[in-house]
Amino acid sequence: MLGVKLPANLQADSDLLFTAVQEAGAMGLELSRKNVRNWAKPDGSTVTEADLQIDAFLKSRLHDTRPDYGWLSEETPDTPDRLSCKRLWIVDPIDGTNSFVNGSDGWCIGAALIEDGQVILAALYQPKAELFYAAALGYGAYCNKVLMTANDDSGFAGAKLLGTGRALKTFPGVSAAASPQIPLLLRLAHVASGQADIALSFGPRNDWDLAAGDLLVQEAGGVITQVTGAKMIYNLATPKQNGMLAAGKQRHSAALKILEAI
């Protein structure tokens, strides 16, 4: 799924990850054509039978194949044993579950491989749009095997921002804000591919909502941090980040200065 050959130490894991996410996408597409049961979780978010089936499939393909790697997923109860693992799979079986339920194409499957707190491999698949995003640390980010480059500029006039109304008000002159229905992983993929210029989200954000998109942005030449400017570090005891800011290097620096002044 990349446009380059990786060294042996990454190739085997990338083959495993990319194939599993592609197969999970096909599963999700098939399940989306059925009237799968859905319900509200205790936090008010929606979950479906498809989320759970895809989660179980990816765990069997990824974690069971690499049992010494840790596992963190939105739909699997978290356990502290992952903290002792040098490598960790982070998975969101369906990011954008409401879109999945509504029959739109605004959902995706995201998975990443972490090493010592940093993302080294990432895959994000949007099956209905037939878009497969993939990245490897130091080897670029690709969409359908085409190298991606994030947009960059130091200004905000006319820039497309993906976020909520609060995010839109933060930067005067930006051209648009995305519906909150667009999941965070797809927002990051859009920044990496140049479809958008900035992605901004306030408040605690789960690792599985960011990890795969994190590497896409970085390998496309952009920058992603917490809203404080702190680096994203994954596989901590509390698997959350303090918001998210992603953009090209110059625009990220300019945006961070605005956020620091708030």
Task: Sum this structure up briefly.
This protein has seven helices and 13 strands. It has 262 residues and is α+β, with helices and mostly antiparallel strands.
Describe the fold and architecture.
- By secondary structure, this protein is α+β, with helices and mostly antiparallel strands.
- It has two domains: 8-147, 2-Layer Sandwich (Fructose-1,6-Bisphosphatase, Chain A, domain 1), CATH 3.30.540; 161-261, D-Maltodextrin-Binding Protein, domain 2 (3-Layer(aba) Sandwich).
- It contains seven helices and 13 strands.
- The chain has helices at residues 8-32, 49-63, 97-102, 165-170, 184-193, 211-219, 249-261; strands at 38-40, 46-48, 70-73, 87-95, 108-115, 118-126, 131-136, 141-143, 146-147, 161-162, 198-206, 222-225, 240-248.
- The radius of gyration is 17 Å and the shape is globular.
- The model has no long low-confidence stretch (mean pLDDT 94).
Write the layout of secondary structure elements.
Elements: H1 8-32, E1 38-40, E2 46-48, H2 49-63, E3 70-73, E4 87-95, H3 97-102, E5 108-115, E6 118-126, E7 131-136, E8 141-143, E9 146-147, E10 161-162, H4 165-170, H5 184-193, E11 198-206, H6 211-219, E12 222-225, E13 240-248, H7 249-261
Parallel strand pairs: 3-4, 10-11
Antiparallel strand pairs: 1-2, 4-5, 5-6, 6-7, 7-8, 8-9, 11-13, 12-13
Helix pairs in contact: 1-2, 5-6
Structural class by sheet pairing and helices:
alpha+beta
Shape: globular
Give the CATH architecture of the largest domain.
Answer: 2-Layer Sandwich
* Weakly predicted, low-confidence segments: none
Radius of gyration, in angstroms, nearest whole number: 17 Å
- Tally of distinct domains: 2
Count of beta strands: 13
Oligomer kind: single chain
Alpha carbon gap, first and last residue? 41 Å
- The overall pLDDT, averaged over residues, is 94
Percent of residues in helices comes to: 25-40%
The named CATH superfamily of the largest domain:
Fructose-1,6-Bisphosphatase, subunit A, domain 1
SSE ordering: HEEHEEHEEEEEEHHEHEEH
CATH C-level name of the largest domain: Alpha Beta
Largest beta-sheet characterization = 7 strands, mixed
Number of helical elements: 7
Into which percentage range does the β-strand content fall? 25-35%
Task: Give the CATH topology of the largest domain.
Answer: Fructose-1,6-Bisphosphatase, Chain A, domain 1
